Amino acid sequence: MQGDSMWAALLVDRDGQSRAVVERVPVPVPSEGEVLVRMSRAGICGSDVSFALTGKASTSRSPLVLGHEAVGVVVAAGPGDPDDLVGVRVSLLPRVVCARCPGCQRGHTVQCREQTCLGVDRDGAFAEYVVLPAANCLPVPDGLSDELAAVAADAVATAYHAVVGRGRLRSGDRVAIWGVGGLGLSAVGLAKTLGASRIVAVDPRPQARAWALATGADEVLGPADAAAFLADRGGVDIALEFAGRPETAEAAVRALDHGGRAVLVGVGPGSVGAGRLMSLVLRERAVLGSYGSEPFEARAVLELLASGRLELPHLVGDTIGLADVPRGLERVRDGDLSGSRLVVAIS
């Protein structure tokens, strides 16, 4: 197998322009501590579109195999390593951390100062095979589909970290969510599962609002209607922002009741005004950033999905082939989707 070639969707620079192409490349070889995974399914994330089409973000090098949300089966271990994962179906943790820096030593790997990411800094998952550390492989519980397992350890786990790890959701909390794409839709389902008393989803797209209702939102609104609606109801305990826009981040802060937490997950240009200093202090409002997730949070998500406690009926939509990734990226950019995530079937 090693030394052979495989199909992969790469980001390349051709004629001064980044684009995605599907080409044959060598099958990677695992080093000590790594495993080789035969890919089954991979999700197309908005960041993949930013790298390949819009230029809103960039990878650390080119050419580079894209993709960081994935599931597959371990087929080989590195030299001298135990083979206990060989044959196991695994969901991939996309962030590769150093395990040495202060953040890692405290158990806060999201703050790793030397982290790299699949499909951003190292070859990713839009390929027949990928190599990554064995520590980045989480066994998938029986009964969970490959499609959901592919996006669980990134999109859903990122939402879990925001809702639970940073937002500290408690049963009975009132929650508002700005931006119900893959992460925001996952946050709706998680808030419902974990006992939120009211969930308001805010998004300009009618289809996204419909999916949010089906996932458990109690109210869905366009951005223009959200401020007055939430103010009339006394605000919320947790405001989650997934759109990455200064205006929606500021709207999330303004929607907080006394003691509320605004959790900002979306990344984008611009700066954010966190509100009047007196309001933040006297009402004990908190504004928190949230990035990625910890391995234990990804495991919790896999168990919630496998048990059926967490239902995300519109998170995954159509499935396409590896050869169709360039067109799939365009579909995600254009919103031509039957579910929040377009999934690539690789094997």
From TrEMBL:
InterPro entries, alphabetized: ADH-like_C, ADH-like_N, ER, GroES-like_sf, NAD(P)-bd_dom_sf, Zn_alcohol_dh
Cofactor(s) needed for function: Zn(2+)
Keywords: Metal-binding, Oxidoreductase, Zinc
A molecular-function term among this protein's GO annotations: oxidoreductase activity
Domain Enoyl reductase (ER): 16-344
Protein name (database record): D-arabinose 1-dehydrogenase, Zn-dependent alcohol dehydrogenase family
Organism: Micromonospora inositola
Lineage: Bacteria, Bacillati, Actinomycetota, Actinomycetes, Micromonosporales
